[in-house]
Amino acid sequence: MKALIIGGGIIGSSIAWRLASDGVEVVVFERARLGQEASWAAVGLIGPQAEAHEPGVFFDLALAGKRSFDEIVERLTRESGIDPEYDHEGVLYVAFNDAEKADLQERAKWQRAAGGNLEELTPREALKLAPMLSEKVIGALHMPTNWRVENRKLTQAYINAALVKGATFREGARIDSIVTNARGATGVRLGDGSTESGDLVINAAGSWAGEIRGLEDDRIRFYPVRGQILCFDARPGLVGPSLLSAGGIIVQRRDGRILAGSVFEEAGFNKSVTLDGMQRVSQAARALVPTLKSITFREAWAGFRPASADLLPVLGPSPTVSNVLYAAGHFRSGILLSAITGEIIADLAAGRKPSIDLAPFSPARFRDGTARPVKLADWK
């Protein structure tokens, strides 16, 4: 089998590694540079309890995503030669007012019922765990098994491991359309007019997944959701657990860098850093860690979260074109779901039954009308 993967971010690279490990011939096409879009711009949480808003199919997928990642991270590190800095610091989700505290209590209730591991902390207990935290916190949830990675190194680890297994990566190779015959997809056509033949095409193009011609009848809308992140230079170990509130997030890297994010904006494919976005991020960050105001600013960046119309991942076969699989629409959870997505696509390619029920994430849900569109403003 020869598989053609559209998209060289963390999702496409994870799939490439898993398929190449199964002996599949793999070619990955990246429109720009490998891993330089959403995969580059993230904060790197492997935190299903922090990322899910409610019980249900996404939370179940997120929990499965962490289990899958835990199972492969040592092997990935060994095969790639890159340490993705999988830090087991946990997440501290805090409240600053009664409404936020009530939301955390409700989150604790449903997450315990759904199998989540967490502790409800008093302000004093939260400050003991994270001394840099604001003293204005009135309650907190500690999620001790929600960890983090250095997402840029993790993406490169998938790429390196896939290369070791024989995968080919092509940068600056924009895919224009799917090439088909009566039996389904037979390859892809590039922007320069050239074609590449293959037995299986995988759409892992992130925010650009909806721009691949030939899949219009699937009726799937993908769009970018801009996020902005501020980065500060600090001494290593200053913050401890990743800090999360209703307004933002703070994550520290091993080398001391502190990342503060993030906003959710529909701005098309405009990847600009804006004054408004920086102000909102900095306000949320200073509310979490007041002393951040005196820490040296390093840089800021923006990136696109690849969203589908219902803000759920799109995983599985195209309902209209045979030999095409989707692995897109991961929104803000591409890092968390990278391992499970690679596992799922490899299972489908090999004719194995995936470990989870894919029905809620089926690409066919948009065509048959079962998808429930969600407005970004309502989600927030």
Q: Say which CATH homologous superfamily of the largest domain is assigned.
A: FAD/NAD(P)-binding domain
Low-pLDDT runs of 5+ residues are: none
Radius of gyration: 20 Å
Placed side by side, the strands forming the largest sheet appear as 5-6-4-14-15-16-13-17
- Class derived from helix and strand content: alpha/beta
CATH architecture of the largest domain: 3-Layer(bba) Sandwich
Describe the secondary structure blueprint for this structure.
Layout: E1 2-6, H1 10-21, E2 25-30, H2 38-41, E3 45-46, H3 48-51, H4 57-80, E4 91-95, H5 98-113, E5 119-121, H6 123-129, E6 139-143, E7 147-148, H7 151-164, E8 168-171, E9 175-181, E10 184-190, E11 195-197, E12 200-203, E13 222-233, E14 242-244, E15 249-252, E16 258-261, H8 275-288, E17 296-308, E18 314-317, E19 324-328, H9 338-350, H10 364-367, H11 376-379
Can you walk me through this structure?
The chain has 380 residues and is α/β, with parallel strands linked by helices. The protein has eleven helices and 19 strands. It has helices at 10-21, 38-41, 48-51, 57-80, 98-113, 123-129, 151-164, 275-288, 338-350, 364-367, 376-379; strands at 2-6, 25-30, 45-46, 91-95, 119-121, 139-143, 147-148, 168-171, 175-181, 184-190, 195-197, 200-203, 222-233, 242-244, 249-252, 258-261, 296-308, 314-317, 324-328. An eight-stranded mixed β-sheet has the order 5-6-4-14-15-16-13-17. The chain has a six-stranded mixed β-sheet with strand order 8-2-1-12-19-18, covered by helices on one side. Helix 1 (10-21) links the parallel strand 1 and strand 2. It starts with a strand and ends with a helix. The relative contact order is 0.19. The mean pLDDT is 97.
